[in-house]
């Protein structure tokens, strides 16, 4: 995998965001971060970036359980936006519900489903 320029974290848990950013910094995973605290905020900001032809994140780490819009609502809307850039989406969630795991497989845009917490090993697997 090429060097990640921008990683986008969509999660409402400040402890998860802090820890994930720290692990990414320690492993030189990426240069920059975009942080959004719910799916609607992420959708609106990423849609504006696409419309303005600005630099999109290379990777999105998406939580499922968030206020306002959950991860599924974000995905359903985000995949409707015409976009020529390839963005790798990982669902990173505390949900071990088999229904969520199966649902994630139905989205072509989702690369993998990872149960929290994120670890250096899991991050290195993403980089392959």
Automatic annotation (TrEMBL):
The keyword Phosphoprotein applies. Keywords: Phosphoprotein. SUPFAM superfamilies: CheY-like. The modification 4-aspartylphosphate is found at residue 63. The keyword Phosphoprotein applies. InterPro entries: CheY-like_superfamily (IPR011006), Sig_transdc_resp-reg_receiver (IPR001789), TCS_response_regulator (IPR052893). SMART domains: REC. Residues 6-128 form the Response regulatory domain. This is Response regulator. It comes from Flavobacterium frigidarium.
């Amino acid at each position: 995998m090429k060097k990640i320029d921008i990683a986008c974290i969509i999660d409402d848990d400040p402890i998860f965001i802090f820890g994930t950013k720290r692990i990414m910094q320690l492993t030189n995973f990426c240069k920059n971060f975009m942080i959004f605290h719910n799916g609607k905020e992420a959708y609106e900001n990423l849609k504006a970036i696409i419309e303005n032809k600005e630099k999109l994140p290379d990777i999105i780490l998406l939580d499922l359980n968030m206020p306002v819009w959950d991860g599924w609502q974000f995905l359903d809307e985000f995949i409707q936006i015409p976009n020529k850039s390839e963005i790798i989406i990982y669902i990173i969630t505390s949900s071990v519900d088999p229904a969520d795991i199966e649902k994630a497989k139905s989205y072509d845009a989702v690369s993998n489903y990872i149960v929290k917490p994120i670890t250096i090993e899991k991050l290195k697997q993403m980089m392959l």
